[in-house]
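Lab notebook, design round three. We kept the backbone fixed and only want residue identities now. Task for the bench partner: fill in a sequence for the structure below.
Input structure tokens:
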């Protein structure tokens, strides 16, 4: 059933585009907000609007929100290339391959870590929403590396708390364009959805606090290999922060990477890999660490950039 909302436009949204205002008021993506506007389901002072129109503080907004899409269901199916780094009765640590999402989401039609584990007969915790049971953290679909999934309910609750309290050591390596100055540093900049590009994120005033620490592993002629430590875990955080300091991740065209360099290195995605994951084991409390080797495409690209230096 549709949900009709009527409210005055807050003064803080004065001058915003209608689609941006809707996105902020109702927690929608810009694309979904634009679809609602295009359907004629948004009235401003009683008149239909275009998505690029501007709102005025105090104007009366009437919005008919469509029912939310039903939650997708995990499809139990094998995921080629997804290895198991470690497994016991409480956790399974996977080596996530390229092109695989952590769990099903609306609009995603590809394979998932959760579906792959279920398809291989692994028992997964039932805690959490049905489409992401057992999932305590995520990697982007095109980011590879170590990822832990909870098998027991105790593991789920304890790992979720550990991630929330930042008691997890998540280490990534990223090959970025150019040479960051300083070679070791911290990017402390808030992140939120990009104001004009649906599906992307950006450094935005008033966004969620986001902190990324980086250190140089090796500098090459055209790029630098960084070791990255996340203090927070925002969506696309490393990609956004590297782009913000004008050193986008090699191959990450969505965030400004050079397509010519990516093609020369044979990359069809960002050079970003979750190399190490450490945490207190949820059952016995001892510290455990797991490492993931570079996948073939990243290893080959690194060999080429090194040979050109």
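Proposed sequence:
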């Amino acid at each position: 059933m549709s949900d009709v909302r009527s409210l005055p436009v807050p003064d803080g949204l004065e001058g915003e585009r209608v689609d941006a205002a809707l996105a902020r008021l109702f927690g929608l993506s810009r694309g979904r907000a634009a679809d609602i506007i295009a359907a004629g389901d948004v009235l401003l002072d009683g008149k239909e609007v275009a998505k690029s129109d501007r709102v005025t503080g105090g104007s009366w907004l009437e919005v008919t929100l469509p029912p939310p899409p039903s939650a997708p269901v995990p499809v139990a199916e094998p995921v080629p290339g997804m290895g198991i780094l470690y497994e016991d009765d409480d956790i399974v640590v996977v080596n996530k391959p390229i092109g695989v999402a952590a769990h099903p989401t609306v609009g995603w039609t590809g394979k998932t870590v959760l579906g792959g584990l279920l398809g291989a007969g692994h028992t997964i915790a039932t805690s959490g929403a049905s489409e992401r049971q057992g999932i305590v953290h995520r990697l982007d679909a095109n980011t590879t590396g170590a990822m832990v999934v909870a098998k027991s309910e105790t593991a789920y609750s304890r790992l979720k708390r550990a991630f929330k309290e930042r008691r997890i050591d998540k280490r990534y390596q990223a090959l970025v364009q150019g040479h960051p100055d300083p070679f070791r540093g911290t990017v402390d900049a808030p992140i939120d959805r990009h104001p004009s590009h649906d599906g992307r994120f950006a450094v935005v005033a008033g966004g969620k606090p986001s902190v990324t620490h980086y250190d140089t592993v090796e500098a090459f002629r055209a790029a630098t290999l960084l070791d990255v430590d996340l203090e927070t875990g925002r969506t696309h955080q490393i990609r956004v922060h590297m782009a913000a300091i004008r050193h986008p991740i090699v191959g990450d065209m969505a965030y400004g990477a050079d397509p010519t360099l990516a093609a020369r290195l044979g990359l069809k995605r960002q050079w970003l890999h979750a190399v190490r994951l450490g945490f207190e084991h949820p059952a016995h409390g001892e510290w455990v660490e797991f490492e993931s080797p570079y996948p073939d495409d990243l290893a080959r690209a690194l060999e080429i950039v090194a040979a050109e230096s």
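Keep this in mind before ordering anything: The chain has a mean pLDDT of 92.
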